[in-house]
């Protein structure tokens, strides 16, 4: 039902009760943490809505008029109900802040999430975090099924996401072709897309963000190309170790190979005309606003991904 515009707001009613209880507008103002002129303004606002005075000022303080007595009696139930509502909202927010369920793709889990989690811990030490590491297609399914309790927030590296999810780009990444220093490609300035397409490579499993982005990029250059994967591994670390041994070249996130490139156990292969840049995104059910720990974690990820 629609509430009449004659009904005062809660702060004005609460202040009126305090004036009656404490016997003074000044003491009521102090109890509410506002100035006496502000308190007087609220009472005048209430009286304009009611249409008659609700307080009578005396040398000993403020006392209610007959109308003030009536309003006060009715207002007590309203304020008590509002206090119960406030307690209920406080409980809901505390329950929301007590846990955070996150699903994230492997690259994000291994190379970005630990730093994000450290900052979240500083901001929300009471929040228990549950993290499911999976490939990007599984993350989308987890977030879409948030009603089933699988995740409150997801982080994906795949190039697309379903229309029933909202998203925000939190970082950017580039896929690199890397190989051991003794591989013939390591001694060349550049190779062609055709040479890369003809090579048997080490890859993440089908459905991973890196695998999907790489295959789409090559098919844009060579529409008839079909992947020739010699070895699929679900772990980025396993792919790196295999590439370091010289087993085969690999396509990996720049986030994953920073140390190996610095140590020169892997080297980047420049592919003429091929650049695979991608967005790393936070995803959540469409139409829902992120709140509490989920909102804080998304903001932390966004801030960490900005260029310094």
Task: Write up what this structure looks like.
This protein is α/β, with parallel strands linked by helices and 308 residues long. It folds into three domains: 10-96, Arc Repressor Mutant, subunit A (Orthogonal Bundle); 99-170 and 279-305, 3-Layer(aba) Sandwich (D-Maltodextrin-Binding Protein, domain 2), CATH 3.40.190.10; 173-278, D-Maltodextrin-Binding Protein, domain 2. Helices cover 46% and strands 22% of the residues. The protein has twelve helices and eleven strands. The protein has helices at 10-22, 25-32, 36-50, 66-98, 106-111, 113-123, 136-144, 193-198, 209-221, 236-244, 258-263, 292-305; strands spanning 55-58, 61-64, 99-105, 128-134, 153-156, 165-179, 201-204, 229-233, 250-253, 267-269, 276-285. Strands 3, 4, 5, 6, 9, 10 and 11 form a seven-stranded mixed sheet that branches. A two-stranded antiparallel ribbon has the order 1-2. Strands 7-8 form a two-stranded parallel ribbon. Helix 9 (209-221) links the parallel strand 7 and strand 8. Helix 6 (113-123) crosses helix 12 (292-305). It is rod-shaped. It starts with 9 loop residues before the first helix and ends with a helix. The model has no long low-confidence stretch (mean pLDDT 88).
- Give the H and E element order: HHHEEHEHHEHEEHEHEHEHEEH
β content, as a range? 15-25%
Distance between the termini: 52 Å
CATH architecture of the largest domain: 3-Layer(aba) Sandwich
Number of helices: 12
Structural features:
single chain; alpha/beta; Arc Repressor Mutant, subunit A; D-Maltodextrin-Binding Protein, domain 2; 3 domains; 7-stranded mixed β-sheet; 22% strand
